[in-house]
Amino acid sequence: MSDNTLPVIEGLAGLIDPDTVVERLWTGAIWSEGPVWIPDLRAVRWSDIHNNRILQFHADDGSTVVYSDNAEFTNGRTLDRQGRVIQCSHGRRRVERDHDDEITAIVETWNGVQFNSPNDVVVARDGAIWFTDPAYGISIAVEGHPGEREYRDQYVFCHDETTGITRPVILDVEAPNGLAFSPDESILYVADSSGSGSGIHPGVGNRHIRAYDLIDGRCKNGRTVITIEDGVPDGLRVDTDGNIWTSTKYGVGVYDPTGRELGVIRLPETTANLCFGGPDGTDVYITASSSLYRVRTRARDAATA
């Protein structure tokens, strides 16, 4: 990277030490997405969607390996309450579990129709699986397979593995993308990336993050809390103080729970997603176009704290 494209940290006092350096750990992908830290492996697993493969960075020796070829265009992933990987498959149009190298379907249909292309996923403390279902994997050739929106829309769903019940929980986000809970799981944040001009609604759409109060399993009182000026919000995480970390065109923006910007991590590549990880959970790993980055912070992911 040339001097004028070096990563820059602006603001974020109290969250990132002033002398912190952004590390580029690996490069060579086309579109990096869906990172998750796997404590048992001390590794970050993420997708190179356009190359249809899954990569894995091992923190102990700094190596990156191809975990899976022909990965059916997996995207967002997280861990369930037992530490197993839950991932979204654009190609198979489902949410699935990858445990001990065996991939099994969790949920593939709703009301007798296929999903569009599940994109990102979180697991609540009660084990329920919440996921977004935009149409990127059926409308963009390099992100999946051509297909139809069988339920004619793009929803956020919740799936209960115990009962097998899947239900739509948010219907008013045009293109739901990243999602995360507040520390006490009283609020669900959802990114709307419909303003990306990706072919779903060319020239129109939103570039904001919505917040919903969770009341008896229902999402109520939806409101816009953050609007992104440069690019669109994609993946996001919430730390133990309730701050929202979201990927954007320029890197990662960090906002307090009211939506006030605290600072940014500027990267030389369009950024897709991020996760917390490392030995004490305070390292932020960022997937940005061709590369995987790491930033040492003082924050921790609310979902794993």
Please explain how this structure is put together.
This protein has one helix and 27 strands. The protein has 305 residues and is mostly beta strands. The chain has a single domain, classed as TolB, C-terminal domain (Neuraminidase, 6 Propeller), CATH 2.120.10. A hairpin with a 2-residue loop joins strand 9 (94-99) and strand 10 (102-107). The longest helix has 4 residues, at 136-139. It starts with 7 loop residues before the first strand and ends in a 9-residue tail after the last strand. The mean pLDDT is 95.
Question: What secondary-structure arrangement, pairings included, does this model have?
Answer:
Layout lengths: L7 E4 L11 E5 L4 E7 L4 E6 L4 E6 L4 E7 L4 E6 L5 E5 L4 E6 L2 E6 L1 E2 L2 E2 L6 E3 L5 E4 L3 H4 L16 E4 L6 E5 L5 E6 L5 E6 L15 E8 L2 E10 L8 E3 L5 E5 L2 E5 L5 E6 L4 E7 L5 E6 L2 E6 L9
Antiparallel strand pairs: 1-24, 2-27, 3-4, 4-5, 5-6, 7-8, 8-9, 9-10, 11-12, 13-14, 14-15, 15-16, 17-18, 18-19, 19-20, 21-22, 22-23, 23-24, 25-26, 26-27
CATH homology superfamily: TolB, C-terminal domain
Poorly predicted ranges: none
How many domains in all? 1
Strand order of the largest sheet: 1-24-23-22-21
Number of alpha- plus pi-helical segments? 1
Quaternary: single chain
Any idea what the CATH architecture is? 6 Propeller
* Helical coverage, percent range: under 10%
Through-space gap between termini:
34 Å
Silhouette: globular
